Amino acid sequence: MGHKITQKEINQTVWKACDTFRGVVDPSQYKDYVLTMLFVKYVSDVWKDKRDLYTEKYNGDEQRIVRALRNERFQVPDNCTFEYLFDNRNAANLGELINTALEGMEDANRSKLDRVFRNIDFNSESNLGRTGDRNRRLKNLLVDFANLDLQPSHLEGNDIIGDSYEYLIAMFADSAGKKAGEFYTPSEVSTLLAKLVQPQAGDRICDPSCGSGSLLIKASKEVGSNNFSLYGQEINGSTWALARMNMFLHEIDNATIEWGDTLNNPRLIEGDSLMKFNVVVANPPFSLDKWGADNATADQYNRFHRGVPPKSKGDYAFISHMIETTYEDTGRMGVIMPHGALFRGSSEGKIREQLINENLLEAVIGLPSNLFFGTGIPACILIYNRAKGSNKDVLFLDASNAYEAGKNQNRLRPQDIEKILNTYIAFKNGETVTGDEGEVIEDKYAYRATIKEIKENDYNLNIPRYVDTFEEEEPVDIAETQQKITTLKQELTQVESKMEAYLKELGF
Question: Which ranges form a coiled coil (predicted)?
Answer without folding.
Answer: 478-505
